[in-house]
Amino acid sequence: MAEKQKLIEIKNLKQHFNVGHGQVIKAVDGITFDIYKGETLGLVGESGCGKSTTGRTIIGLYQATSGEVLLNGVSVHGKKSPKELKMLKRKMQMIFQDPYASLNPRMTVADIIAEGIDIHGLAKTKEERMKRVYELLETVGLNREHANRYPHEFSGGQRQRIGIARALAVEPEFIIADEPISALDVSIQAQVVNLMKRLQREKGLTYLFIAHDLSMVKYISDRIGVMYFGKMVELAEAEELYRNPIHPYTKALLSAIPLPDPETERVRRRAIYDPSQHQYKDGESLEFREITPGHFVLCSEEEYKKYKAMHS
Amino acid sequence: MQQIPKEMFQPAAAELGEAEKISRPSLSYWKDVAIRFRKNKLAMFGLVLLVLLVFMAIFGPHMTKYDYATNDLMNTNQPPSSKHWFGTDDLGRDVFARTWYGARISLFIGLAAALIDLLIGVLWGGISGLRGGRTDEVMMRIADILWAVPYLLLVIILMVVLGQGLGTMILAMTITGWINMARIVRGQVLQLKSQEYVLASQTLGASTSRIMFKHLIPNAMGPILVTLTLSIPSAIFTEAFLSYLGLGVPQPLASWGTMASDGVQAMQYYPWRLFFPATFICLTIFAFNVVGDGLRDALDPRLRK
Ligand SMILES: Nc1ncnc2c1ncn2[C@@H]1O[C@H](COP(=O)(O)OP(=O)(O)O)[C@@H](O)[C@H]1O
Ligand SMILES: [Mg+2]
């Protein structure tokens, strides 16, 4: 455990959207966590809790309201020379949720995949560029005949593979996958997850894997973070989170997973999370505290003592 | 409900190899566009018409020995004949020569309108939409102010300063003619810029101009072409209309508008003087419209069958 190297450090990151009329949406409201080299960190939470915004702020699509993101110890936001910025862009890439909206319908698959190669000047000749495109197509399980086609000729799963190939073209270290499988058929989901796992093994990639429910993340994640309304409420190793969920919201999420066995599924009870159940008093400060080693929960001082007593 | 025993369930084998095949042959984007355009009969007809119009605008005036501006008072108001193919007008000028001379003016105006739309309108709207925030607000307020200036009034004011003519009309168009295009493109860009493929391009480190020319404008091409096919014929018609009112190109220059205006007065006795310019105004506008529609459909690979 100790030799784990931090690739990404996120420190008190906030993203507040000004939506006019003096109203502010606190989409991400002060989250802190690290992502270790070579791991997959799952990020779950219901729709609208700020998962996409977290991913997009980390990668710099949105200007963070406050907080810091470090990649290999270097801040990725703030003033940078264009050259440094380009280097950083190559290291972080994103795979998107909607396989229909994430590929430009007017470009051929070759041009889509080669976009990063073109931007960063990674191929010197046309032949070299096409060679890279063919390699990437084969890496993601498509074939070279697909290079001159348009996105609309492909199925959702194939499009998602094209999106993965596009991200891989610049040889990133870290990939944010924003619900990459939630728009796909269940039968295709496993194929894409397996592809991502294989690529992780072969290329030593680090993933932030965003999902809106806990059922699939378990199979791909080493650790899982649970988000609720812009805050991270629990973070632990995947196994630990499933076996010993502490925060009531995590328990509610876990209870929402359908069970494969119809016998047990019939008696499954869904827990409902009601934030008022904490009965926090005014002035009580909520902090992200370590209950057992590597298992963090957002809680008050009082709850911390209670959880600590229950789980050790 | 009928119970199916567990043993009857079997895992389905995934057939990867088969699923990844597509049968249609692959083509380059523009070849594909051309094929789809050619399948559209009406659009092809419009294109042929436009090519003929351009050809006649270039060579038409030289096909007859008569000049568009030379009076022949011995041969006024002649009906179409083997000598004067489209007849003559009240000053004995050859209507055939004048019609094709007028085509030059109309097509030139159309071309100017298209260039103004594309160079000013598309860029203005594109930058405004993509930059957003303050830049967007300032650029759109400027457009709103210019929009409020009536074209007719502008032409008349500019005429006082610069005199009557084609240049004045084009200058007036440069000032106000691109606003509609700018608004349409801005709307498109606002909609397109949050698409995930644009975000993907940004995370890859694409420059603003790359995002604009590779992603935004190609995907806004449909509405851009529709707007163009409306604004080209509308510019041609506006020129004809202004000339008809006597505010267009000065005599003895021939424009379809001035010819129609003169022709209307003699419509009952010498109908060919109205018939030829009016017919060609209609044909030109029709041709631009159907070609624009055809192009819009052909440019969209999703409509490929
Ligand atoms: N660009 C934006 N401007 C304003 N509000 C936004 C923007 N993006 C997201 N939001 C708001 O932030 C919240 C979190 O959104 P999002 O990160 O997309 O959630 P998730 O991905 O978890 O479903 C939502 O309430 C959403 O409406
Ligand atoms: Mg989302």
Automatic annotation (TrEMBL), chain A:
Signal peptide per UniProt: none
Cited Pfam families: ABC_tran, oligo_HPY
Record keywords: ATP-binding, Nucleotide-binding, Transport
Superkingdom, taxonomy of origin: Bacteria
One GO-annotated biological process of the protein: transmembrane transport
Limits of the ABC transporter domain: 8-254
Molecular functions (GO terms): ATP binding
Similarity-based family: Belongs to the ABC transporter superfamily.
Annotated protein name in UniProt: ATP-binding cassette domain-containing protein
UniProt keyword Nuclease, yes or no: no
CDD domains: ABC_NikE_OppD_transporters (cd03257)
Keyword Nucleotide-binding: yes
TrEMBL record, chain B:
Transmembrane segments: 42-60, 105-130, 142-162, 168-185, 220-247, 274-295
PROSITE patterns reported in the protein's UniProt record: ABC_TM1
UniProt xrefs under InterPro entries: BP-dependent_transpt_permease, MetI-like, MetI-like_sf, OppC_N
Record membrane topology: Multi-pass membrane protein
Annotated Gene3D superfamilies: MetI-like
Keyword terms: Cell membrane, Membrane, Transmembrane, Transmembrane helix, Transport
Any single GO CC term annotated in Swiss-Prot or TrEMBL for this entry: plasma membrane
Domain ABC transmembrane type-1: 103-292
Domain of life: Bacteria
Subcellular location(s) per record: Cell membrane
CDD domains: TM_PBP2
Family under the similarity heading: Belongs to the binding-protein-dependent transport system permease family.
UniProt name for this protein: ABC transporter permease
Origin species: Anoxybacteroides rupiense
